[in-house]
Specification:
The protein has about 350 residues and is of the alpha+beta class. Helices cover about 50% and strands about 5% of the residues. It folds into 2 domains: about 5-235, Orthogonal Bundle (Hypothetical protein af1432), CATH 1.10.3210; about 245-320, no CATH class. It is built from 15 helices and 5 strands. It is globular, with a radius of gyration of 21 Å.
Length: about 350
């Protein structure tokens, strides 16, 4: 099932097939937990290896995860957190066995939920205090499930136990804070929230990635270390690969390359119709085009809008250098600015 061995032949179709097969593997593990049977993590370890090797080649799995897969929410969340958490880990310098462990932690971080009564998980109304306590006990249940797999998985069990702890001490189940919490668990935690925000729920629409980033930075800034939030923004971007956008020129384009240094200025590819109508170049590096920017997101990321024939090249540096000292503060200000711009465009269209 490895992505890397077949990816070059069929592109997005193979990644989508891999994702469906991963849903089946994770679903079987979930069923075993629900039925109080022993689980074996070898197949999940193979999935974690697939995730790492694929993301070291290109970001097609990221596009798949951000595209809103239609499977069971608890299952797709485990797979998405593995994919997106691995991507953030790469941005933080993880490699080798650590990166594999991070991917595996994503695949099992909420495994304890399957030990909680299903009626409680799917309850449509407000939870009672006792019911909420049961839900918040699921990291401990997950730890117990992983511990039964043997001493080789002790560290993985600890990561599962800590995945809902928060840097400011407001998490659960043990209200750990600061450096008492593993960095890997914090990566899993922030990506888990991000995935929930960009996934559709019965009570709300799915947020676009830039909306989810802003929500995270506003609501969860004290819950996670700054370096992890910064890596999430840089690696997943305000405008992820495959996002369809409208430029300030009125042209429609697809994000083709993420610019981690300037997340608001990716490389975009004009759609084929505009290219045939005489555009001088099919790609625009917005870091080199200060008079052109993204005005509006039209569609979220989707597999097939871009082609991954080789590992993406690093985007060219901007012709107008920006001081490195503004990095994170400017990023936060820019996120606010882009949301205001988008809201202005939407409001003007509604009133016109």
């Amino acid at each position: 099932m490895a992505v890397s061995t077949r990816e070059s032949r069929c592109g997005g179709a193979i990644v989508t097939t891999w994702y469906h097969e991963a849903e089946q593997v994770v679903g079987e593990i979930a069923t075993a937990v629900q039925e109080h049977r022993s689980i074996f993590l070898e197949r999940l370890e193979a999935l974690a290896g697939d995730v790492v090797s694929s993301l070291q080649r290109n970001d097609e799995l990221v596009v798949e995860a951000l595209g809103g897969p239609a499977g069971p929410p608890l299952i797709t969340n485990l797979i998405n957190v593995a994919i997106l958490g691995t991507k953030v880990g790469i941005g933080l310098g993880y490699y080798g066995e650590e990166l594999h462990q991070l991917a595996l932690a994503g695949l099992v971080h909420d495994i304890g939920l399957f030990a909680v009564p299903k009626s409680l998980i799917t309850k449509p109304g407000r939870l009672t205090q006792e019911e909420r306590a049961l839900i918040e006990g699921h990291p401990e249940l997950g730890y117990q499930v992983i511990e039964k797999c043997g001493p080789a998985y002790h560290c993985l069990g600890q990561l599962t136990r800590q995945a809902h702890e928060r840097f400011n001490g407001q998490g659960y189940p043990h209200r750990l804070k600061g450096r008492e919490i593993s960095e890997m668990a914090l990566i899993v935690g922030v990506v888990d929230i991000f995935d929930a925000l960009v996934s559709e729920r019965p009570y709300r629409r799915r947020l676009l990635p830039h909306e989810a980033v802003k929500e995270l930075l506003v609501a969860e800034r004290r819950a996670f270390p700054r370096e992890i939030l910064k890596a999430l923004v840089e690696q997943l971007s305000v405008y992820p690969l495959g996002t369809t956008v409208r430029l300030t020129t009125g042209e429609i384009a697809t994000v083709a390359t993420v610019n981690s240094r300037y997340p608001l200025r990716p490389v975009v590819r004009l759609d084929e119709q505009q290219e045939h109508e005489g555009s001088s170049s099919c790609e625009i590096d917005l870091s080199r085009a200060p008079l052109v920017s993204i005005a509006e997101i039209l569609n979220p990321p989707e597999v097939g809008r871009i082609t991954f024939s080789r590992p993406p090249s690093k985007p060219a540096m901007s012709a107008v250098p920006i001081a490195a000292s503004d990095s994170f503060t400017s990023l936060l200000e820019s996120l606010d600015a882009v949301v205001l711009t988008l809201q202005g465009v939407v409001n003007s269209k509604r009133t016109s």
